[in-house]
Write a structure and sequence with these properties.
The complex is a heterodimer of chains A (398) and B (310).
Chain A lengths: L2 H13 L2 H8 L2 H14 L2 H17 L2 H14 L3 E5 L2 H12 L4 E4 L3 H6 L1 H7 L3 E4 L2 H9 L15 H12 L9 H18 L2 E4 L3 E3 L4 E6 L3 H7 L3 E7 L3 E2 L2 H14 L7 E5 L4 E2 L7 E2 L6 E7 L3 H5 L15 H5 L3 H4 L10 H12 L1 H8 L7 H5 L6 H13 L3
Parallel strand pairs in A: 1-12, 2-3, 2-4, 4-7, 5-8, 7-12
Antiparallel strand pairs in A: 5-6, 6-9, 10-11
Chain B lengths: L1 H16 L25 E3 L4 H19 L9 H4 L4 H7 L4 H20 L5 E2 L9 H6 L2 H17 L4 E4 L2 H14 L6 E4 H4 L13 E3 L3 H6 L4 H9 L4 E2 L20 H16 L4 E4 L2 H11 L5 E4 H4 L1
Parallel strand pairs in B: 1-2, 1-3, 3-4, 5-6, 5-7, 7-8
Helix pairs in contact in B: 1-7, 2-5, 12-13
Classes of the chains: A alpha/beta (398), B alpha/beta (310).
Chain lengths: 398, 310
């Protein structure tokens, strides 16, 4: 069986899974409505999204310049920038930074999934824990994230109870509410936060002029991952770079709005390592946060995609996940219609960029061509026509 | 290779016969035999045969599914279907006669609405071949290009300057896609919905109807208000589903041939929403009609093409 046939077989099995269906039905329509209602009330946000579209286009036209600027800026504030051409390069860099340190906590990052950081670190014998609750469930399930923002969107409360009981050995009766489940997991993860040697995060945006990374969240785990352990490593795709700090803030506001999470509970801006100048008027590092901070910028197909007429627009994507929620196919399949990491309309393009254009082309054949994703995208990526062009490649490989 | 088989099958057949599935002679214009339309003229009614093809696409799909004995198997059996002589497939894949009669009734209603609106048009009869939309949608650009040049030539031979279409897919493909592929494409294209007039305003207190906008009309062609105005003039109380107009939700039909069970799951999703608004669902696309009709029994709803309501 080829790649697409395997996807179809997997989705066919999923169609028989009533829990999967129930979980999506209970969340997707509500999420879509929340975003639409919000946008109706906040007419300034689509205007801001238009600005973000232009900001992203500006960076894509001069990516090497902005990579260089971001790396120099980070160096100037005592951070450690790294450039990784491939996933393997990223893992090599990561291994060197981590060295003998053993206890590692992760905040949810799609690029960490793309690189396979968790699996790699587990393989080399490290103790690794996801700290985003949804992503922790994915780790326990040994699955893949089912949505860009809500990785465990496909799980019912019962699914979660069973996972937590069986995989974490946390005592649960089986009739707990989500609130009670969260309360049980909290002390388990608290201990991981406090004792971790390394915290690994992603980045929602990176400002080239200051070397700052921006992270948005509602749980609070990212703040702990980036501040409690003595070493913070962030990893992000090069397309996350924007020219200025203000631009980066615009990106995170637009992302949270279209993800249905406005206002974001927490926005973290990390500009290098923690420091203080309070004693002897000399700046020293590692006051309360980590004394050492690294940023790995990953290419993995992105620069090549900038030069590709079909894929270039996909790099504007801010991963809000709104096209997934809007897509009638995704509403049934979640990221089962997708590659290793990225699914749904945006996932077709991202799979083509990060796993090869042939895989994206195979996925494209399950697109309805209904153009609903086009209406959902805040940065006006012409998703349906991008996917249609990949169909041409599926039929006639270049 | 299975989906490639399906795409090759439909592409080859379109090049060879003008249609993407096995069909009997005359199936596309039988509905028009009772009229004596001119075969040439500046204004041409071009159906693109999508309404007429629906019964045959359905029967082939059912036949292929039966071969695979699974709901997902339509495409798998194509590997075998290509090697089976076409006359055998024709016999095995018996179209639903009610569906054929429905498609002819819809086209008759449309022709009558145009005539009643005093619009003069000609019709191509045996040259009313397929628009090639499925080839385009599946990504077979090469065979699509070959086929649409044939369609364009036939339309030009009839002296056409303006084209009247009857479904959203054919309208979109002629209006927005043909010009990208055909040098010198100079035909004006409009859906019949944009041209007809409802003069016999009726204020009868009819049951409310819920509109299922076609994705292509709503998002591809911004044709949103027209069907509402026509139905209102006819005295219908129009109800709107939550996902309507520019954010209308797909019926699942476009992937029916590739992945029937996924297509059905999407249709159920949509019908569940429509049925909470009214049990009378109005469609304006043959693909929406058939895909939603297939699940309508589960939701105690009836589906009608807009032309039948006007």
């Amino acid at each position: 069986m080829d790649y697409l046939e395997n996807i179809i077989v997997d989705i066919s099995e999923t169609l028989k899974n009533k829990d999967f269906r129930e979980a999506l039905e209970s969340s997707v329509p509500m999420s879509e409505k929340r975003v639409l209602d919000f946008l109706n009330l906040h007419k300034d946000i689509p205007k801001l999204a238009k600005e973000v579209e232009e900001i992203k286009n500006k960076v894509l036209s001069n990516i090497d310049y902005y990579i260089e600027m971001a790396m120099e800026s980070l160096k100037s504030i005592n951070g450690n920038p790294h450039y990784a051409e491939t996933k393997d390069d990223a893992l090599d860099i990561l291994d060197k930074i981590i060295g003998e340190r053993n206890k590692i906590i992760l905040s949810k990052s799609m690029v960490a999934e793309e690189v396979g950081i968790r699996e790699h670190l587990e393989e080399v014998g490290k103790e690794v824990w996801e700290t985003d609750l949804g992503q922790l469930l994915i780790q326990l399930e040994k699955g893949k994230p089912m949505h860009a923002i809500a990785p465990a969107i496909h799980m019912t409360v019962n699914d979660v109870i069973n996972l937590v009981k069986n995989k974490l050995n946390i005592e649960l009766k089986g009739n707990e509410t989500p609130q009670q489940i969260v309360a049980k997991i909290r002390p388990f993860l608290r201990e991981k936060f406090v004792n971790a040697d390394v915290g690994i995060s992603g980045a929602n945006a990176i400002s080239a002029d200051s070397g700052s990374i921006f992270l948005i969240e509602n749980e609070g785990n990212i703040r702990l991952v980036t501040t409690l352990p003595p070493l913070h490593i962030a990893i992000a795709g090069i397309e996350k770079i924007v020219p200025t700090l203000i631009d980066a803030f615009k990106v995170v506001l637009v992302q949270s709005s279209y993800a249905g999470l406005y206002p974001p509970t927490y926005v973290s801006m990390v500009s290098g390592p923690s420091s203080t100048g309070d004693i002897g008027h000399r700046r020293v590092y590692g006051a309360h946060g980590p004394p050492e901070m690294h940023l790995i910028l990953l290419n993995n197909g992105r620069k090549e995609a900038i030069k590709n007429d079909i894929l270039r627009d996909q790099l504007r994507c801010i991963r809000c996940g709104n096209c997934q929620i809007f897509c009638p196919v995704w509403d049934i399949t979640a990221n089962k219609w997708g590659g290793k990491v990225y699914g749904g309309p945006m996932g077709v393009g991202w799979t083509a960029i990060t796993e090869g254009i042939e895989k994206g082309a195979e996925l494209s054949e399950l697109c309805l061509g209904c153009m609903r994703c086009d209406a959902a995208c805040p940065v006006e990526i012409p998703l349906s026509s991008l996917i249609h062009k990949l169909k041409n490649i599926y039929v006639k490989p270049k | 290779m299975r989906i490639r088989e399906l795409i090759d099958f439909m592409g080859d057949l379109t090049i060879k016969t003008g249609y993407p599935v096995p069909v009997p002679d005359g199936f596309s214009y039988k509905w028009a035999l009772k009229y004596n339309f001119n075969r040439e003229g500046k204004v041409v009614l071009y159906t693109g045969a999508l309404y007429q093809l629906i019964p045959y696409i359905e029967s082939l799909s059912l036949y292929l599914m039966a071969m695979e004995k699974s709901d997902e198997g339509g495409y798998i059996a194509l590997k075998f279907a290509r090697s089976i002589p076409r006359d055998i497939i024709n016999k095995l894949a018996q179209p639903d006669k009610k569906l054929i009669s429905w498609s002819y009734n819809v086209l008759t209603s449309i022709a009558n609405l145009l005539l009643k609106s005093k619009i003069t048009f000609s019709y191509l009869y045996e040259n009313d071949i397929y628009s090639g939309v499925l080839l385009y949608d599946m990504g077979d650009e090469e065979k699509f290009k070959i086929h649409i040049n044939k369609v364009f030539k036939l339309l030009k031979q009839s002296n056409a300057e303006k084209i009247i279409t009857v479904d959203p897919h054919t309208t979109y493909i002629l209006k927005n896609v043909y010009p990208k592929y055909i040098d010198g494409f100079d035909l004006e294209v409009n859906s019949y919905l944009e041209l007809i007039e409802i003069n016999d305003e009726s204020k009868l207190n009819k049951d409310p109807v819920v509109i299922h906008d076609s994705c292509i009309y709503a998002r591809g062609l911004s044709l949103i208000d027209v069907p509402r105005k026509l139905l209102s003039k006819k005295g219908y109380e129009i109800k709107e589903p939550r996902r309507n107009k520019s954010i209308t939700y797909c019926c699942g039909g476009p992937i029916e041939a590739i992945f029937p069970s996924l297509s059905k799951a999407i249709a159920k999703n949509r019908m569940e929403e429509l049925s909470t608004v009214s049990n009378k669902v109005i469609t304006m696309c043959p693909i929406c009609y058939i895909n939603l009709s297939k699940v309508s029994n589960n939701y105690n709803t009836e589906v009608h093409d807009i032309s039948e309501m006007l």
